[in-house]
Amino acid sequence: MKVEVDKEKCCGAGQCVMIAPDVFDQGDGDGVVILLRDTPAPEHRDGVREAVAVCPAAAIAIVG
Amino acid sequence: MVVGAGAAGLATVTGLRGNGFEGPLTWIGAEAELPYDRPPLSKEVLTGARTPDQIRLCSPEKVAELGVDLRLGTTVTSVDVDGRKVMLSDGGVLPFGSLVAATGVTPRTLPGSEGVHTVRTLDDVMALRAELSPGRRLIVIGGGFLGTELAAAARSLGTEVVLLEPEPVPLGLAIGAEVGTMVADLHREHGVDVRTGPGAAVARWHASRGAFDGVTLRDGSAIAGDLAVVAVGSVPATSWLAATGIDCAAGVRCDEFCETAVPGVYAVGDVSSWYHTGFGAQIRLEHRTNAGEQGLYVARRMLGLTSEPFTPVPYFWSDQYDLKIQAYGVLRGHDEVRVVDGTIVDREFVVLYRRGSRLVGVLGVRRARALRQWRAQVAAGAAWSDILATT
Predict the structure, then answer these.
(1) In this complex, do A26 and B369 lie within 8 Å of one another by their Cβ atoms?
(2) What average pLDDT does the segment B129-158 reach?
């Protein structure tokens, strides 16, 4: 699995960080997403799928 | 069948397919457009920073992949719950097993404001954008989230802006007078003519040769303007459910599982009023985040994949110039606001909201990480006395 985030679209809700903290973080100030691992470990992949589904800005994509 | 092709409808449809539902799925959308994201409309789409194509949530290929019978530019005019069928605006009649209402809201208007802009759809924003240019003057009626965001976006295009709010402070009811005052100051610094209080209500609308050319306020002042937009809230789009007997007085009334009094009929997104067991109250949210979460929840619920009630922690954000306001919880109706981190003057802070003896919400500016730390306590409805003891 390969993950991409779009920092322009990100609205800083932090949903992804709550669901998959090993994969996503957010900036201190504006809360914009920081991708910690673009190839998540197998045990984190379900979390990434859920984060994609609930992201209010549709800013996360699984690209491979 | 899913009625409504915005974010909530899309989340329901993708949630159903994503969780293994293989049966027939009909999806009806009033607009001619494939689902798109609404929050950017009053922000980047109005400023031109993003094109309509950049806010699409769903491509034609994705629709094909989902295997849905999508009917755009079509509305449901009425529902026969006993016969389990819907009547369509094009004269068609379609059967359903389960039905999900995701029809959102329509902008409220004011007496005499016919022909004045409102903003809900992509078409609405493109029509407004076409009339904005440097040197023209826009009158924004309503200082809520939509009105203030429209004012900010219009200013960045060089348009002169007058913002009218009959409450003492823009956003005062939504996020409190302290933070609302900061937003008003921000707008004034950017050259917006912000007028507040009962005198700032529109008393008369003026037109010249059929075209809007200004308003007279209740305090007697006349304001000339080239165009106006009314942003005074919205009403749930429920008229199509009138014959069902479902209580739609304040949104489509649902239980804690987002199901109406008619078994197999659900409501999601802005139109849904459901019983939040965590808050112990019927609530309705016009938040983008909720549309996605509630759509996914109802998909899972319909498929028997969850027996838990729907109890999200509400989240919303608003962009005003270079400032992003973020909040968790239900802030409206709060009794007290308290700064716990930073200062409002510096525009870098976290504030907590008390209602009764409980923490009900938290709002932050340029403090996203600190803000998120409070989310769990908002979710738990932490006792205010415990909060005070630790801050």
Answers:
(1) yes
(2) 96
